[in-house]
Amino acid sequence: MSMLTVQDLNVWFGSNRDRVDAVIGASFEIPRGESFGLVGESGSGKSTILRAITGLAPDWSGAITVDGQQIGKARPKTFFKTVQMVFQDPYASLHPRHSVDQVLGETLHLHGFKDIDSRVVKLLDDVGLGQKFRFRYPHQLSGGQRQRVAIARALAPEPALLLLDEPTSALDVSVQAEILNLLADLRADRGLTYLMVSHDLSVVGHMCDRLAVMKDGEIVEVLDVAALRAMEAAHPYSKQLLEASV
Amino acid sequence: MMTNLLDVENLWVKFPTRQGVFDAVRGVSFTLGRERLGIVGESGSGKSMTGRAILRLIRPPGIVEADQIELEGVDLMQKSEKDMRAVRGQRISMVMQDPKFSLNPVMTIGDQIMEAYRLHSKASKSEAYAKSLEMLEAVSIRNPERVMRAYPHEMSGGMGQRIMIAMMLIPNPEILIADEPTSALDVSVQRQVLDIMDRLVKERGMGLIFISHDLNLVADFCDRVLIMYAGRIVEVCDADKLHEAQHPYTRGLLNSLPRLDAPRKRLEVLQRDPQWSTAPSVSGRI
Question: Is Phosphoprotein included in the keywords of this UniProt record (chain B) (predicted)?
Answer without folding.
Answer: no
